[in-house]
Amino acid sequence: MAGVSSDQLLAALRASGEPTRLRILALLAEGERSVKDLTDILGQSQPRISRHLKLLVDSGLVKRHPEGAWAFFRLAEDGGSVAFVRQLLAALSPEDALVARDRERLDAVRQGHSEAAQAYFARHAGVWDQIRSLHVDENEVEAAILDLLGDERYDTVVDLGTGTGRMLQLLADRAERGIGLDVSHDMLSFARSRLDDGRLRHCQVRQGDIYATPLDSDVADLVIVHQVLHFLDDPERAIAEARRLLKPAGRLLVVDFAPHDLEFLRDQHAHRRLGFDHDHMSAWLTGVGLEPDRHIELAGTGDRNSLTVVAWSARDTRSAVRTPDRLSEEAA
Which parts of the chain are coiled coil (predicted)? Predict the structure, then answer.
C-alpha cells in the first residue's frame, strides 16, 4: 500500500480488521452488492450491515453508489487502498469455513437475481420480439459494431442507456473497465444480473440521466449509444453529453434506425423519433466536436415494415495525450 499516509493505513487496518467487515470485503471482491444482498448472505440486520459499510466507505476501501432508494457497494478501484485490499484478500484461504459458506449463500443470491431477471425478460419478451422481427438479426448488428471498432482495446467503456447490458458483455474482453448507465431500475437489475452471471467484475451499471451523467469529463475511451436516441426528445443533447465523457481522440459509437414511417412504434412503444438520416447524424456529431469516420447500414427484411439499422462511428478531434509509456511503445 505504498504512497499513503500513516493515517490512511491505520484507517484501512481498523476498517478491515473486524470479522464481518472482512467477510464483506471478500464478498465485494466477487462483484457489487446491495445492502439487502449482504444481509441475506451474512444473516445480520440491515442497520448492523449499514454501519459496517459506512466504516468501509469512510476508510476508502469501498465505494457507495446510490440508485433511487437503493445503494450498491463495490471495492474501491483507485487509490492506495486497492493494493491493500488485494493483498489482504489474497491471504484469505478459500477453504476457510466461513468464507466458503458466504460463497454458497452468494451463489444462492445470484441465482435469485437471475430468476427475477428472467421473469422480467419473459414479461417483456413479446414487445422486444416484435421490434426485433422488423430488423436484421442482432448478431449481424454486433458483428458490424466489432467491424467498426477493429482491434482497439480500451481502458474505460461507457454505455449510455445500457438496457440489458448487452454492449458491456460484447466488449468486456476489450475493456479494463465498463460502465453502463440507465434510468430504469428494472433494466439495471436485469443488466446487473447478466453481468453477475458472466462474472464480469470489471463491468458495472449505474442509474443516471443520459443528459447529465454522474461521470466526470474525459473519462472514456469509447462511449456507446445503442438503440437509445429514438426514445429521446433531444438526441443532440445526449450526443453532446457523450462527447463530454470522451477522452481526447476517444470514439463515439451510435447505433439506431434509419428514417422510417412505422408510426405504431411511436404510438405503442414510446419511440419519439422515427429514425435518423446520415446527414442529420453527421451534423450533430460534427456540431459537438466529433469527426465522423465510418458508418454501416444493415437493411431489414426488405418489406415496407422493415427497419434499417445504422451504426455510426466518430472520433473526438482533440489529440490524445502522449504519456511516457505511450511514447516508449511508439518508439518500439
Answer: none
